[in-house]
Amino acid sequence: MKLLLAFFRLVRWQNLAFIAITQLLFYFSLVQPLYAKGVSFDFGKQHFLLLMLASVLIAAAGYIINDYFDLNIDRVNKPEKNEIDRTIKRRWAIVQHIVLSLAGILISVYIDLTTRTFWLGISNFICVMLLFGYSISLKKKLLIGNILISALTAWVIIVAFLCYYRTMFCAGCDPAFYEVYVHRFIRIAILYAGFAFIISLIREVVKDMEDMEGDARYGCRTMPIVWGIPASKMFVAVWLVVLISIICVVQVYVLQFGWWISAAYSILLIIVPLVWIIFKLRSAQSARDYHRLSQAIKAVMLAGILSMLIFRIYS
Fold it and tell me: Is the pTM higher than 0.85?
């Protein structure tokens, strides 16, 4: 039991649940309503569940290999959270990484062979390689690691979108409205993928400020180390303002259609917390302060993803 609990902590089960919830909400809120309009997909529920499983397995493998190579840094930054060499031996961590990665890739290849997708296997293989490269060296380089993780966060939504977009067709829908449905599907997917990318980039930089001590000791060149804390705070603040502005523009647009629930939800659970984060960022100084900000950003990320349910309400 102790080993099992350590394994779940190692693979960040809460983050894996977040990935699964994101893709489930995408299906429930954005894909399923299209069936009622006569749009269909050559991508069944069983394929979607396999896609979700592959995403979770590859992410879990990424967390393991990241902790494997971050062992010394984590002994400084998060000594109480490190499981490798304390509960799980290093060689078993490598075995778990390989098994989970291979399982995710093989599931992706199976989806390619049984649907009209043909790119999922190679795409998820690239994701595995990128996560490996990130763990070895890319995370130590200025902005490259931050952008990579943010892109992979957005990929959780993009991959689900592409699987359905590439296989959608008009079964019993009105052909005059089919293009409208397609364009709306594309716009919403881009909106959420963009949100996931920006807020993940913000959180990654805040986490770098939190982990600055251990990163500096082991030669990392993260933004706070290279540019300094004031410049890093400015970088985060600018992206927070950009994100708030985009959300405000979207809400002004949807209010034309009477989407009052969307506006109220976004203001109370996304915009106001983001403004609060900007103000708290100015006074943040300690690792504990940055950790709290990181957790607050994660909560806003969850609120943003849950807002997909609003599209279900207005579908």
Answer: yes
Find, among 168, 162, 166, the residue nearest to 40 by Cα: 168
The answer for residues whose C-beta is within 8 angstroms of residue 129's C-beta and 6 or more apart is: none
Residues forming a β-bridge with 40:
169
- The Cβ of residue 119 has, within 10 Å, a number of other Cβ atoms equal to 14
Pull the structure tokens for residue 271.
């915009």
Please list, in sequence order, all residues whose beta carbon lies within 8 angstroms of the beta carbon of residue 8, skipping any fewer than 6 positions away. none
**Which H or E run includes 124?**
helix 120-136
| CA–CA gap between residue 198 and residue 107 (Å, rounded) | 29
Q: Give the CA distances from residue 191 to residues 7, 86, 150, in Å, rounded to whole numbers and listed in that order.
A: 34, 42, 14
CA 158 – CA 189 distance, rounded (Å): 7
Give all strands (DSSP E) within the chain, no chain letters.
Answer: 39-41, 168-170
- In terms of residues, how long is the chain? 315
Give the pairing type, strands 168-170 and 39-41: antiparallel
Whole-angstrom distance, CA of residue 145 vs CA of residue 222: 9
Helix (H, G, I), strand (E, B), or coil: what is residue 39? strand
Segment 219-251, tens digit of pLDDT: 888 999 999 999 999 999 999 999 999 999 999
